[in-house]
Design brief:
The protein is α/β, with parallel strands linked by helices. It has 9 helices and 16 strands. It has an 8-stranded mixed sheet, with helices on both faces. Strands 3-4 form a two-stranded antiparallel sheet. Its main location: cytoplasm. It is an enzyme of class 2 (transferase). It is found in: Cytoplasm. Pathway: Amino-acid biosynthesis; L-arginine biosynthesis; N(2)-acetyl-L-ornithine from L-glutamate: step 2/4.
């Protein structure tokens, strides 16, 4: 049977799936740019406690892996830790924006991060294939730390088993990535001298790992749209700023946002091409940020955006990200 020739003046039929093809075409330059690159994603905020957001997060990360990127997930577990401490009759106390972690609380932190949050996340990712492998900063000396003494009113304060990162060994993570796996890292560290286990801020851990891995991008999921330009007077989000511009803003940031933005600053000052704070309350926010023209958060870039970092710098077309 021969195929009839199209009749003159007849408009080709519109296919309802055409918008899907257009979306894929829009993603093409971003897929090309990020192919084979390492992306470190800090998992936190509402995305950790909402079932629909958790499922969407897992889909996004697996999509990145199948699209040729090398995702690494770093997580904390603030809400889950607080709930478990309450069950054990232990008080949740914060100083300088960090959880005061007694030896008893550290046992709970370790149990929740490695035994609850990580296992659930690994399970969600592995619904899509045998990809995710969980480890903590203790494993293979991935994260080494010393006791951290934050300063309040100029004086050092003892907040217990809270660690300050001194070294990163990426060997175990690199081996997993080379094997096609998705490492899922709990933000716990071991001290080199006394063998103590320390609770490490997950934003800080993600930034340190991104720098040590030479990642293309650090992505930090949070519960706001990004870095606000003039909060609380305005809800306009800063779409893009340089390391120097961010550094000037740091003293004005809230205690919750400060470690996230300090992590972004550390990352781009240590070889990471872009660092992004994105709204984890939006389903598929990771894909929207990486594979669309406008993005969905605040992007931090190195000061010299004409140098090596420029290759990873997206051009934002919208007024806000």
């Amino acid at each position: 049977m021969t195929t009839p020739a199209p009749r003159p003046g007849v408009t080709p039929r519109k296919h309802t799936a055409l918008p899907k093809a257009q979306v894929l075409v829009e993603a093409l330059p971003w897929l090309t740019r990020h192919h084979g690159k390492t992306v470190v994603i800090k998992f936190g905020g509402n995305a950790m406690v909402d079932d629909a957001l958790k499922a969407a997060f897992a889909q996004d990360v697996v999509f990145l892996r199948h699209a040729g990127l090398r995702p690494v997930v770093v997580h904390g577990g603030g809400p889950q830790i607080s709930a478990q401490l309450d069950r054990h009759g232990l008080v949740s106390e914060f100083k300088a924006g960090l959880r005061v972690t007694t030896p008893e609380a550290m046992d709970v932190v370790r149990m929740v991060l490695a035994g609850q949050v990580q296992r659930e996340l690994v399970g969600l990712l592995n619904q899509h294939g045998p990809l995710a492998v969980g480890l903590t900063g203790e494993d293979a000396h991935t994260i080494t730390a010393v006791k951290h003494y934050p300063r309040i009113d100029g004086e050092p304060v003892d907040i217990g088993r809270v660690g300050e990162i001194t070294a990163i060994d990426t060997g175990a993570i690199e081996a997993l990535l080379e094997d096609g796996r998705i490492p899922v890292v709990s933000s716990i560290a071991r001290a080199e001298d006394d063998g103590h286990i320390y609770n490490v801020n997950a934003d800080t851990a993600a930034a340190a790992l991104a720098a040590a891995l030479g990642a293309e991008t650090l992505m930090v999921l949070t519960d706001v749209e990004g870095l606000y330009e003039d909060w609380p007077n305005s809800d306009d989000v800063i779409s893009r700023l340089t390391a120097t511009e961010l550094e000037k803003l740091l003293p004005e940031l809230s205690s919750g946002m400060a470690p996230k933005m300090e992590g972004c600053l550390h990352a781009v000052r240590n070889g990471v091409h872009t660092a992004r704070v994105i709204d984890g309350r939006v389903q598929h926010s990771i894909l929207l940020e990486i594979f669309t023209d406008e993005g969905i958060g605040t992007m931090v870039v190195p000061d010299d955006t004409t140098g090596p970092g420029a290759a990873g710098t997206a051009v934002r077309t919208g007024g806000v990200a």
